[in-house]
Write a structure and sequence with these properties.
By secondary structure, the protein is an alpha/beta fold. The chain has 10 helices and 8 strands. Bound molecules: xylulose-1,5-bisphosphate and magnesium ion (MG). The site of xylulose-1,5-bisphosphate (XBP) has 17 residues, from helix 1.
Length: about 250
């Protein structure tokens, strides 16, 4: 089957957005709303086991005060906090503080030049995707992606496979025609659940997780003179993840 499309996760895969982006935005939203929460790095690392910012806040609230978290006004309060958080995140990203991970822009441009289709499958919101893509690749770069599967497009977030099956359906492609890129165990489970061969590039928060079923488990995509290291089909591998390499791996 000829490789037709690359499907990218966003947070942790395109860029390391969590520690200095999302986490900071959550804390700013809590402060805005007068909510006495503040997520330090260790707390956030633990809470990242829950994909989805709204789901993550609700999980934390249930730990702190189960009764309040189940109250009738809880969903509206979570939605308000998430709107505030997303506004802070979009502003933080627009300020240019978060760059793409090494090799991401190179591979995206290589794929475009070869006529390979591109898509995004992420738990975060469409606004956050647009902010990151525009800030790092330019205002027209959202047009590089045939499909952007984000946030509440599907009823269940990763590790549910829904967002990936949603993207495949809209692309009119089968999993066998694509390769997915992820950074987390939740994301890998979602992509594999949709039948996708998946390249995992671990990040600051995810490198200690387990990644059963990954096509490749790497520390990044690599760059000329700065190869990635890891395993492909469980065999040690070092190099630069290029389109030709992906075509070879995808068979
Ligand atoms: C990672 C997530 C997101 C972000 C926060 O998404 O789980 O929830 O942590 O963004 P990805 P939101 O699938 O790109 O790795 O607050 O918008 O959910
Ligand atoms: Mg991710």
């Amino acid at each position: 089957m000829t490789l037709q499309a690359l499907i990218f996760d966003v947070d942790g895969t395109l860029a390391e957005t969590e520690r200095d982006g999302h986490r900071v935005a959550f804390n700013q939203a809590f402060a805005d709303a007068g909510v006495p929460w503040s997520w330090d790095d260790a707390t956030y690392a633990r809470l990242l086991a829950v994909a989805g910012g709204k789901e993550r806040m609700l999980h934390y609230w249930r730990e702190l005060d189960p009764a309040a978290a189940e109250a009738s006004d809880a969903p509206a309060r979570i939605d308000d906090l998430h709107r505030r958080k997303t506004a802070h995140y979009v502003r933080l990203v627009a300020e240019g503080g978060i760059g793409l991970r090494p090799g991401v822009e190179r591979l995206l441009r290589e794929a475009r030049a070869a006529g390979m289709r591109l898509a995004i499958a992420t738990t975060t919101t469409p606004d956050n995707v647009e902010a990151l893509v525009s800030a790092t690749l330019g205002a027209d770069a959202m047009g590089w992606f045939d499909c952007i599967g984000a946030g509440d497009a599907v009823p269940r977030k990763k590790p549910d496979a829904g967002i990936y099956t949603w993207v495949l359906a809209r692309m009119g492609l089968t999993a066998a025609q694509c390769v997915a890129f992820e950074d987390s165990a939740n994301g890998l489970r979602a992509a594999v659940g949709a039948g996708l061969r998946t390249v995992v590039t671990t990040g600051a928060y995810t490198r200690g997780e387990a990644f059963p079923g990954a096509l490749a488990l790497l520390d990044g995509l690599g760059a000329p003179g700065a190869p990635a290291h890891g395993h492909v089909h469980a065999a040690p591998w070092s190099g630069v993840v290029s389109l030709d390499v992906l075509r070879l791996w995808a068979g």
